[in-house]
Amino acid sequence: MKGKVVVITGALGALGKVVAEEAHSRGARVTGIDHAAPQFAATAERIELGGVDLTDAAQAKKAVDAAAAHFGAIDALINIAGGFTFETIADGDPKAWQRMYALNVETALNATRAAIPHLLNSHAARIVNIGAMGALQAGSGMGPYAASKAGVHKMTESLAAELKGKITVNAVLPSIIDTAANRASMPKADPAKWVAPEELADVILFLASDAASAVTGALLPVNGRV
């Protein structure tokens, strides 16, 4: 990743922080984009753009263009921004479906559309999205979330075909990620069987690297220690 310019959405979340730190440690120049306020002062190798609503196409474009202007290029876009809800179809809020679509599909779509013109100038351009194992076979309470992540899967496949030979486009499909929020919501579960953010970061950054030049259109499950 040395010298690569990487843009990460959702960079201040549990997974985003780990991916941003690992990319930076491998020599990448990193822009983190998030709805939350920046947490670190800008350096020559890393900046954070906070207060960005990626469900708004104009805000997404402004942030991505700012990242490209700061570093002079974009080589990889990693779409981590998203959300989760657990609601049954019969008793849940119908608005949850629109909210999940906005947080999981529109954020990735808007950032991707903004980044494509910059990525086309890179000799090894990459887009990596975050799907979900739960979208392959959704259980009870997973309807709105799984439907939105299924949208991410299909967007990934379609865009990979659209950009074949120009930009690789892949998605990782984690099972349960070992985060503080998931531990709090599932206190009786065994987090040792979940996916560690560091493990997921390794897979994401492989797909964003030169070594993954032959991989595009992949939906890669990351199951943890099942």
Automatic annotation (TrEMBL):
<dbReference type="Pfam" id="PF00106">
    <property type="entry name" value="adh_short"/>
</dbReference>
<dbReference type="InterPro" id="IPR002347">
    <property type="entry name" value="SDR_fam"/>
</dbReference>
<dbReference type="InterPro" id="IPR036291">
    <property type="entry name" value="NAD(P)-bd_dom_sf"/>
</dbReference>
<protein>
    <submittedName>
        <fullName>NAD(P)-dependent dehydrogenase (Short-subunit alcohol dehydrogenase family)</fullName>
    </submittedName>
</protein>
<comment type="similarity">
    <text>Belongs to the short-chain dehydrogenases/reductases (SDR) family.</text>
</comment>
